[in-house]
Specification:
Blueprint lengths: L8 E5 L3 H8 L7 E6 L3 E3 L4 H5 L9 E3 H4 L6 E5 L2 E5 L4 E4 L3 E3 L2 E4 L4 E2 L17 H20 L3 H7 L1 E5 L3 H17 L13 E6 L10 H13 L3 E4 L3 E5 L2 E4 L4 E3 L2 E4 L3 E2 L2 H5 L10 E2 L5 E2 L2 E6 L4 E2 L12 H19 L14 E6 L2 E6 L2 E4 L1 H14 L3 H17 L16 H4 L10 H4 L10
Parallel strand pairs: 1-2, 1-9, 2-5, 9-21, 11-12, 11-17, 12-13, 19-22
Antiparallel strand pairs: 3-4, 6-7, 7-8, 10-18, 14-15, 15-16, 20-21, 23-24, 24-25
């Protein structure tokens, strides 16, 4: 690339939706592009919960970043972590070394927000990376294995209780997937326990779930969750999370071996290291052209940015918004290289969707509101469309069709026990034959609500 050394250098940090689309949209532009990411893959985060609940394998929703740009000659990919930015010196500081830039595009996403209780992160499992998804999958599957092994009713009850904290789209999707897994997928796989008796609880601190949707759609989603047997606790902020479960402010406890945190996000440490103004969620406040005030050559996009567009619309932290911002920044850089002025960013709201489970979803597209089967079909079509690569689209669609007709999930693999409580498998290990819950406890067991 010696012939490109005199071209403007565009450094992009983050291979998510925003960063990836910014780099792809600079194909053929008279610039050098360096894409920096601490992982080697682009992750389709909207389907990460399906990896966590054994519906999809990691490779179904991830693609190597280098393969995406193998034919785009003006892009170089670096596996590295960005630790800071020297804004006056126009230098990106890496874990080893640095990069000088003419334009910098920051698209590093967000991290978990425990609202001042960071210690909860040692007990509640977050869902932002493949590692975290696999850890949830492992914890969930080991909980069923531990319940099959124990003869202690209280231990079994705790192992078969799953708590999801946060009533946004991720929390709703996780709760629905947990319930379907227990009720249908695992229902015939065990002998001492009845997986369909697992308890799934969705906890929301606010007065209703899916607050970003119209109230009537939120109520329909709640009804869909109820039809799956999910218990929804609204208006009940969590006061404590420990190894044994959660506690509410009134002292009531829910003992659970698996607690998933989906209650909020905040800016990453890189956002804080910039030394610029942040909003209450730790996101970088940017101008209407997605640039940092006083540093027009530095852009922040996606979940890490608090952006208000040309028409005063607050840009949401959604996949379509990050894609639009990535493409917009690329157009802006192209225009400036040609000596043309900038135009402010305009966000096009293409709608919002959330799936609850099989044939259950809600969707809001402009004035059109959908719920149920049609919303579920629309949700599937949109998510397959946004996946990167034909292979991933084919694999995901094939898996969904297979699961629809068979109720089978082939990604139910326990590969390691790293980070998982030993008692999940070792609690009250029986000395003799395990009594069958289906036979021995049928009389005392409450009827299934599913």
């Amino acid at each position: 690339m010696a012939d490109r050394k005199d071209m403007p250098h565009v450094v992009i940090v983050g291979g998510g939706f925003g960063g990836l689309n910014a780099a792809m949209s600079l194909a053929g532009a008279p610039v050098r592009v360096t894409l920096v990411d601490r992982t080697n893959h682009h992750l389709f985060q909207p389907l990460l919960y399906q990896v966590a609940t054994a519906g999809l394998s990691p490779a179904d929703i991830a693609v190597p970043i280098r393969s995406v740009f193998s034919r785009q000659r003006n892009v170089r990919v670096l596996l590295a972590e960005a630790n800071g930015v020297d804004l006056p010196g126009k230098r990106l500081l890496l874990d080893k070394g640095e990069l000088r830039y003419d334009y910098l595009v920051l698209a590093v996403g967000a991290t978990h927000n425990f609202f001042g209780h960071d210690e909860w992160g040692t007990h509640a499992l977050g869902l932002k990376t493949l590692d975290e998804a696999l850890r949830i999958r492992e914890r969930m599957l080991l909980a069923f294995e531990g319940a099959e092994r124990t003869t202690d009713p209280e231990a079994r009850k705790r192992l078969l209780t799953f708590v999801v904290i946060g009533g946004g789209p991720t929390g709703v999707e996780m709760a629905g997937a947990f319930s379907e897994l227990a009720t249908h997928v695992l229902s015939k796989d065990f002998r001492a326990i009845d997986p369909s008796q697992a308890r799934v609880v969705l906890v929301e601190a606010g007065p209703r779930i899916l607050a970003a949707f119209p109230e009537d759609l939120g109520k329909r989603a709640e009804a869909q969750l109820a039809s799956l047997g999910v218990t929804v606790e609204k208006g009940r902020p969590v006061a404590r999370i420990d190894d044994d479960g959660i506690a509410f402010g009134d002292g009531e406890r829910i003992d659970a071996a698996t607690v998933v945190w989906a209650a909020g996000v905040r800016g990453t440490k890189l956002s804080r290291a910039l030394g610029v103004e942040l909003d209450r969620g730790g996101r970088v406040k940017v101008s209407s052209d997605c640039s940092l005030p006083d540093h027009p050559e530095v852009f922040a996009i996606g979940d890490m940015a608090a952006c208000r567009d040309k028409h005063g619309v607050d840009v949401p932290g959604l996949c379509p918004a990050a894609i639009q911002q990535g493409k917009y920044v690329a157009r802006t850089i192209r225009a400036e290289v040609r000596g043309k002025p900038r135009e402010p960013f305009v966000y096009l709201d293409k709608g919002t969707m959330a799936t609850v489970g099989r044939k259950r979803a809600i969707a809001m597209m402009g004035k059109l509101e959908l719920a149920g089967f049609l919303a579920w079909l629309a949700w599937m079509a949109v998510h397959v469309f946004f996946l990167i690569g034909f292979k991933n689209r084919f694999l995901v669609m094939f898996n969904w069709i297979w699961q629809y007709f068979t109720w089978k999930r082939g990604a139910r693999l326990i590969t390691t026990h790293t980070g998982v409580e030993p008692q999940l498998l070792l609690a009250a290990a029986p000395d003799g034959p395990v009594p069958s819950l289906r036979a021995a406890d049928a009389a005392s067991k409450p009827a299934s609500t599913r």
